[in-house]
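hey m, so remember when u said the tokens were messed up on ur end? i reran from scratch. heres the input so u can diff it against urs
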Amino acid sequence: MTQLKLALAACAILLFAFACTTTTTTNTNDAARINPTPTAPTAPTAPATTTAAPDELAAARATYDVVCAKCHMPNGEGGTVELDEGATLKVPSFKTGRALTHTDAQFARQIANGGDGMPAFKSRLTPEQINDLVRFIRREHQAGLEHK
């Protein structure tokens, strides 16, 4: 009796596996005979895009995180920063005051040459990296703010 049950179970599994692996084909002529009503052609659709637009300032964002965020803060607000020597420095915000009046060239010069407590970065950053940082600051920290 046990052998009979095992044999039936094995046959059921084999039939199930066979049924899952077989494919059926439909003859288009048969389909037309079953449904003789013509269908209107559909307009081609644009392929769906699944990739996001590349972030053109991703490298500048990474540079900002490594070089600038320690003093200017990740949100660009600035504030009082304690330096390695124990002194403190009041770092300006990118969102208020003089930062909104600087031209892009003035910003780039400030990053390159430093001044007012800010170190010079021209030996650590390329001119392209500096210009990308200016664009990043404008887009991420000053977007929607009134520039003078």
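this time it looks ok to me. The longest strand covers residues 79-82. if urs says something different then somethings off w ur setup not the seq
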